[in-house]
Amino acid sequence: MTQTRTERRQLLLLLAATALLLLLGLGSRELWGPETRWANIALQMLQSGDYFDPYLKGSPYYDKPLLSYWLITATSWFTGGLGHWSLRLSSVISAWFSVWLVYLIGEQLFRKGTGLIAGWMLATTFYFVFWARVATADILTVCGVLAAVWWYWRGPDDTRFWRYVVFFGLLSLTSLFKGLIGFILPGLVLLPHLLSEHRWKRHLNLRLLGALLIAGAFYMTPFLLSHLYGAPNYEQSGLGLVLRENVVRFFQPFDQFGPIYTYLIYLPVYTLPWAPCWLIALWVAARNWKHIEPDTRWLIQGLALLMLFFTASGSRRSYYVLPLVPFAQLLGAWWVTRRMAARNSEGRGLKIGFAVTTVLLAAVLGVLYPWTNSGGGVIRFGEQVREQASQQAPLNQWRMVMIEVDNKVPMYLQTGGAPFYYVPETIEDFPHNGDTATLIAWLERTSGEHWDPQRTIFVAQYRSGDAVPLDALKADHQVITTTPTRGEQLFHGREDQSVAYIPHS
């Protein structure tokens, strides 16, 4: 695809605006929702040096393949430690590439300008940008699916071995982020094109089989390393969890139950404010099905197969619809460029719409989010604990005991010292009402280690309005609790409270 100077400038503007929306205020929001699990698992990997056995709050938790955790720990080495930026940067980079890939696919398959419009639609889709700034594997999966589709469309009839290796390598890489949907979703999207004109027959060859074997070996490598170099007494199997999360959950869901119409509601919601474009495009395409371009029919059929696949699964959640969003925006961009061509329009109103949406998103992400998360919360709580502890001794000399603490708190309390000691909620003999001597004695009995009461910080969490846990420690400890952020002061009180006990010097 040869670009003119104007087209290059337009692409650079799109990518620059996307980077701004993804990075602005990225480190100003507390951990939210599922990203707390990624933070806790990555932190325990960094503290223990064990990168093959994922733990959540001290318990085995091989819920997802290892690669998304490894990306976070690798980023933390470059940023100087685990923080908001290192935690979320892999998702941000994946989202940025996703916008670029949508641009490339649109420009390659449809009318000139379709990719640019689709890229702007995706970059200014609120929920896409929102999830792109959350540390999970979902946007990584979206990027991997788009990369595989883009690679296929660069040469759909090319049967060279190296092209198969790259394609299936992308599928394996995507599957190592969240699970086997990395293989399934690109296959569903491309299936209508492979079936048309019997294209699939061209790809039934030994070169494809060889590439599949290489991709399979690549996919198995982290699980093999985990088996060989992980702790011998680790209780969970990564491959067993893959089977449970990707196969058992599909046919016999054990959580995340949603009504069968879940995605009929959430796909329009997750494509706002541009949902009307692809909905109109569906109606236009249905009326002119025999006369529209074959690639447009492929796009609609692939999108329909994705919708059927997710709907057929008994486990449904709103954000599972994210892989459909780029393809829906591509369909909307197809209709927009078709309409612009019919009217001989340059799309001035559309450009204004993209500009306004970009400014609004930047204001929300770069101004409103940082302001509502300032003035308190667990970010400030962590800062206060470290400030007070460092006045007595270097941070790496302290040990942390985490008692029924939510996943998001430990990241803010990093000291660079010994790994945190987690007291699970299921422990019944923990002396919740004991004094310092009683708690230290219990720790030494259960852990088999020596604990210095003058270098041990106890951290616990409780609900607002409940009794403060470990209250007996206030006799000889400094007490630090979370305070509401400005947003919480304005809208509602803080529900989850954390308390830390630092021994008096």
Automatic annotation (TrEMBL):
Coiled-coil parts of chain: none
Chief location bin: membrane
Alphabetical UniProt keywords: Cell membrane, Glycosyltransferase, Membrane, Transferase, Transmembrane, Transmembrane helix
Keyword Cell wall biogenesis/degradation: no
Pfam families linked: PMT_2 (PF13231)
GO MF annotation list: pentosyltransferase activity
GO cellular component: plasma membrane
Gene Ontology biological-process entries: lipopolysaccharide biosynthetic process; response to iron(III) ion
Topological relation to the membrane, as annotated: Multi-pass membrane protein
Classification lineage: Bacteria, Pseudomonadati, Pseudomonadota, Gammaproteobacteria, Pseudomonadales
Annotated source species: Pseudomonas jessenii
Residues annotated as transmembrane: 85-105, 126-153, 165-192, 204-225, 263-286, 298-314, 320-337, 349-371
Glycosyltransferase RgtA/B/C/D-like domain location: 63-218
Compartments (UniProt record): Cell membrane
Protein name as catalogued: Dolichyl-phosphate-mannose--protein mannosyltransferase
